[in-house]
Amino acid sequence: MPKRVVILGSTGSIGTSALNVIDALGDDFEVLALAANKNGELLEAQIQKFEPKYAGIVSEQAYSSLKETRNSNCCISSGSECLEHFASLPEADIVLVAVVGFAGLKAVLAAAKAGKRIAVANKEPLAAAGSIVTKTAKQYGAELLPVDSEHSALAQCLRSGNPMEVSKLILTASGGPFHEYTLEQIEAVKYEQALQHPRWNMGRKITVDSATMMNKALEVLEARWLFDVPADKIDVLVHPEALVHSMVEFVDGSMIAQISEPDMKLPIQYALTYPERVKGLCRSADLASYQTLTFKSPNCELFPAMRLCYDVCAEGGLKPAVFNAANEAAVALFLSRRISFIEIMEFVEKAINNYPAAGEVTAENIIDADEQTRRYVYSLKK
């Protein structure tokens, strides 16, 4: 029997890459359900090619257009509720969650409660609500597998030893477009500059997160819960060549690194076929062509997200949820050209300091903290 896959966020870069991987893997996998935000045209093309049993689109407007153009037997629904519904389909074997931002939390929890293998491509649910997600997955026998290239690398490296032998985890970062800037240059960054990543073509929110290094800060929080390792044992190194995707240092001083060409299809495939490896679409790395590999510590003065992520880890409680929500709101303000690039992290730090340290960590309280924080950040620009 082929493994039946649900892809939430099928029209984004991760979703389209996942479909390419499934297509290449042949009869071992089949697409059960697809869900998108508002790109009805691309979703329609995906439905025609992969013939899923279910499809959903969050946008009501896009849903109306999709209904008029479709000519398949696929059952199509609308609204954000379809994400949770598809995540818990009884016949689903694997749920790939590639929904951007905190919006993916409910789907991740629904898949966890249904005991699914969850391929987690968006870091925000684990960064903001890692204790709840991991507890729920353990309670219902769900399997959490990372699709982020860095966390997939860590998962692969960790197979070289047992947890008691791990000294620290080392996440690598491309550094984004500004890792060699001075503080004065960072303060002068323009809107267009922040949306031009030197290496990858990504969505706008993720591109801005890469520029502020918030993307890596969230990965620290994600790794803390995904691998049950305290934050003070998680390091970050800026590695512009993006060939070493992460490393694990063991207590005897040895380091194990995962090296491959930067291609998201590899960690996607590994999450689908785990624990096996199969031939796929990715080419091997030509190490001789790189000549040199460089590593350096991130500059926390230029990129305060790297300092703040360890602060909120230390404080715990609801602070990680506040950290994530404040960033999502501040990036939204930046993308609407209402604040400057440098103000993104200024607003995030204000939100962290504004929110009370105490608070029981429940799903309801995390969602409430998220909503309160967004309102606070938006109020800073009234």
UniProtKB/TrEMBL annotation:
The positions making up the signal sequence are none
Does the UniProt entry include the keyword NADP? Answer: yes
What does the record give as the reaction this protein catalyses?
2-C-methyl-D-erythritol 4-phosphate + NADP(+) = 1-deoxy-D-xylulose 5-phosphate + NADPH + H(+)
**Gene Ontology MF: a single term:** NADPH binding
- Which residues of this UniProt protein bind NADPH? T11, G12, S13, I14, K38, N39, N122, E124, G203
- Which residue intervals define the domain 1-deoxy-D-xylulose 5-phosphate reductoisomerase N-terminal in the entry? 5-130
Q: Which Gene3D superfamilies match?
A: 1.10.1740.10, NAD(P)-binding Rossmann-like Domain
Q: Which residues bind 1-deoxy-D-xylulose 5-phosphate?
A: K123, S149, E150, S174, H197, S210, N215, K216, E219
Known cofactor(s): Mg(2+); Mn(2+)
Provide a GO biological process annotation: isopentenyl diphosphate biosynthetic process, methylerythritol 4-phosphate pathway involved in terpenoid biosynthetic process
Name the source organism. Sedimentisphaera cyanobacteriorum
Q: Pathway it acts in?
A: Isoprenoid biosynthesis; isopentenyl diphosphate biosynthesis via DXP pathway; isopentenyl diphosphate from 1-deoxy-D-xylulose 5-phosphate: step 1/6
- Residues bound to Mn(2+) are D148, E150, E219
Give the record's keywords alphabetically.
Isomerase, Isoprene biosynthesis, Magnesium, Manganese, Metal-binding, NADP, Oxidoreductase
General function of this protein:
Catalyzes the NADPH-dependent rearrangement and reduction of 1-deoxy-D-xylulose-5-phosphate (DXP) to 2-C-methyl-D-erythritol 4-phosphate (MEP).
- Its protein name is 1-deoxy-D-xylulose 5-phosphate reductoisomerase
- Entry-linked InterPro entries: DXP_reductoisomerase, DXP_reductoisomerase_C, DXP_reductoisomerase_N, DXPR_C, DXPR_C_sf, NAD(P)-bd_dom_sf
Top EC class for this record? oxidoreductase
What range(s) does the 1-deoxy-D-xylulose 5-phosphate reductoisomerase C-terminal domain occupy? 144-227
Family, per entry? Belongs to the DXR family.
Establish whether keyword Magnesium is in the entry.
Answer: yes
- What's the short name of a Pfam family annotated to this entry? DXPR_C
* EC nos: 1.1.1.267
Domain spans labelled DXP reductoisomerase C-terminal: 260-376
What does UniProt list as this organism's lineage?
Bacteria, Pseudomonadati, Planctomycetota, Phycisphaerae, Sedimentisphaerales
